[in-house]
Prior knowledge:
This protein is about 35% helix and about 15% strand. It is of the alpha/beta class. The protein has 2 domains: about 25-240, Rossmann fold; about 245-315, Helicase, Ruva Protein, domain 3, CATH 1.10.8.100. The strands form 2 sheets. Strands 4-3-2-5-6-9-7 form a 7-stranded mixed beta sheet. Strands 1-8 form a two-stranded antiparallel ribbon. Strand 5 (about 150-155), helix 5 (about 160-170) and strand 6 (about 175-185) form a beta-alpha-beta unit. Helix 2 crosses helix 3 (about 95-100) and helix 7 packs antiparallel against helix 8 (about 245-260). The site of S-adenosylmethionine has 23 residues, from strand 1, helix 3 and strand 3.
Amino acid sequence: MPENTLPENTPSEGAVPAGDSAVNPAGEGSADNTPPRLLGPAQVRSLAERLGVTPTKKLGQNFVHDPNTVRKIIRLADVKAGQNVLEIGPGLGSLTLGLTEVGARVTAVEIDDRLASWLPETVAHHQPDAQLSVVHSDALAVESLPTPPELLVANLPYNVSVPILMHLLESFPSITGGLVMVQQEVGERIQAAPNSKIYGAPSAKAAWYGRWTIAGSVSRKIFWPVPGVDSVLVGFQKYEQPLGSEEERQLTFELINAAFANRRKMLRQSLQTAVSPEHSSTERVTELLKRTNIAETARAENLNVTEYLAIARAILEH
Ligand code: SAM
């Protein structure tokens, strides 16, 4: 637990509430000594020092220290005042403060003890009027939240970004869209279309939920420590109606997993165990592919998510 003292200027009576234009737009504080509303390099370093945080690769801890980038993310995510926003991995609070600055109600899920316990202090210090709930947990294990989230806005930990995304989309249907920062290769893979080398299970599963686009790239220099990979911002808009039922989604995802586990094989081979776990049967898969108008010679990367869904429906029919 951190000491209960603030890293820099303690909030004073003259603290500037969110939305006050007297604050330097770069987030570097104002002449009357009120704390800056966003974290710059000096605040990020001194907070980390105060908390004894040495960023770890294991938890993908690269903290954003550039207020302009934070405001760009908030603009691209189209965050509105009063919206319930879910942030995963708030870290020292760089993006959290960008969200609360525009009046969002933020629920932040953080796995790291010190970061989770200190975040309310940081946010209250920089923006006394901010609305924030902190959930100290592994995002992969979160099954309920204090408020149903509408938007997901996050700088995701690199090594688990796809599993976290999939878990949240599956567990919180109230999410209608969002913007996430991920490693460039992961971002390109998520929004890839069929018939390309980078199209994979994450692309097909992401397409179940909605439309995904790369909204911009982010310089390595805006992180501390500087990561060894490039990052992109990926935006998504969920479909208003799901493509199918939960039972259909589960089977569709099983088929996608089986197909991409052997992406070089033709589907009539790779789908065998997913289609009939007890006894593999090429005839059964061939019959299903015929029934759904999918070429017998097709491979995992040739099918879009609705074609995987068509196979799932054919299996569920009989
Ligand atoms: N949002 C902050 C920023 O932009 O400066 C920090 C982003 S940093 C890339 C990723 C954050 O996710 C870290 O704070 C890390 O502790 C946290 N994290 C890593 N794995 C997590 C998990 N499984 N669940 C929740 N938080 C996680």
